[in-house]
Amino acid sequence: MSPRVVSFHYTLTDSKGQVLDSSQGQEPLSFIEGQGQIIPGLESQIQALKKGDKRKIQVPAAQAYGERDENLRLPVPRERFGKEEIKVGDQFRSGQHPDAPPLTVLEVNDSQVIMDANHPLAGVDLTFDVEVTDAREASAQEIEHGHAHGEHGHDH
């Protein structure tokens, strides 16, 4: 059996019920099963769903963006930022790893800036309210390219 292309709308909340992200008012999110395109804890539970199904899916941090790793607190010499104003909460992208999560400033003092390289949602248990809008067999071309090609299996 070929993997499916699954499209779904979602609202993502944290353990306090705060909305973190949502696809409402946008195109549904589409992924090819088994390609690692969405977090494992969400994919494993969506695999049992079909078009029209609605579910509340709980994903523990370990199956989402992982637990927080205190070894990912990175001291960076303050002078590497030049005269730039830096404050706690600022985020920076690493030029070396553009797909990596942003680095978030945790502390700033005269000599160094402490950066956090954990994903911003590391250590957070997540809840997804999902509605599957489509589920169909992936085409050979989609599997080869590693992404869905729209409703009809190809780009226009």
Large-scale geometry: elongated
Low confidence ranges: 151-156
Average pLDDT reading: 89
CATH topology of the largest domain: Chitinase A, domain 3
What share of residues are in beta strands? Answer: 25-35%
Rounded to the nearest angstrom, the distance between the terminal CA atoms is: 27 Å
By DSSP (H or I, 4+ residues per run), the number of helices equals 2
Q: How many strand elements?
A: 9
Task: Assign the CATH class of the largest domain.
Answer: Alpha Beta
Q: Provide the helix percentage.
A: under 10%
Radius of gyration of CA atoms, rounded to a whole number: 19 Å
Structural class: mainly beta
Helix and strand element order? EEEHEEEEEEH
Number of domains: 2
**Architecture per CATH nomenclature, i.e. the level-2 architecture of the largest domain:** Roll
Sketch the major β-sheet. Answer: 5 strands, antiparallel
